[in-house]
Amino acid sequence: MNFLPFLQASTESSVFFPIITFGLIFVVFYFFIIRPQNKKQKETEKMISALKKGDKIITIGGIHGEVTSTKEKTVVVKVDDNCKIEFSRSAVSSIMTDPKAEKPAKLEKAEKTDKADKDEKKDKEK
């Protein structure tokens, strides 16, 4: 009996299996690690390029302040009344959003639910 065709068939399938496995591992790494990291980096670059005078920021060192002027590669941040510090743009961690601008929508929802709860309690008491 000739075993050569059986050996050849088994070696061909065993060659493609590791290649397919490594390909699947790369796809998983791309979608779960590389792609989200690239998205976050683009968002950070967009945020840094959009810095303007008057923005309240937090640096990567944890310093809170207000941007008083912007330059090509740096920003000047007012930390206190008489204290201004110049930072590299890449040292900006985040821009603090104005909580007053976000409150009305949240307050409206909360007020509606509170009002509905009060109405239900009044109905139960009667």
Helix proportion range: 55-70%
Broad structural category: alpha+beta
Biggest sheet layout: 5 strands, antiparallel
Q: List low-pLDDT spans.
A: none
Helix and strand run: HEEEEEH
Number of domains: 2
Shape: flat
- On the 0-100 scale, what is the average pLDDT? 81
Proportion of residues in extended strands:
15-25%
Oligomer: single chain
Query: What is the straight-line distance between the termini?
Result: 95 Å
Spatial order of the strands in the main sheet? 4-3-2-1-5
Q: How large, in whole angstroms, is the Cα Rg?
A: 29 Å
Distinct helical segment count: 2
Q: How would you portray this structure in words?
A:
- This protein is of the alpha+beta class.
- The protein has 2 domains: 1-50; 52-97, SH3 type barrels.
- 58% of the residues lie in helices and 22% in strands.
- It has helices at residues 4-49, 99-125, and strands at 56-59, 64-70, 74-80, 83-88, 92-95.
- Strands 4-3-2-1-5 form a 5-stranded antiparallel sheet, with helices on one face.
- A hairpin with a 4-residue loop joins strand 1 (56-59) and strand 2 (64-70).
Blueprint of the fold:
Blueprint: H1 4-49, E1 56-59, E2 64-70, E3 74-80, E4 83-88, E5 92-95, H2 99-125
Question: What's a concise summary of this model?
Answer:
The protein is of the alpha+beta class.
Task: Provide the descriptors you would attach to this structure in a database record.
126 residues; SH3 type barrels; 2 domains; flat
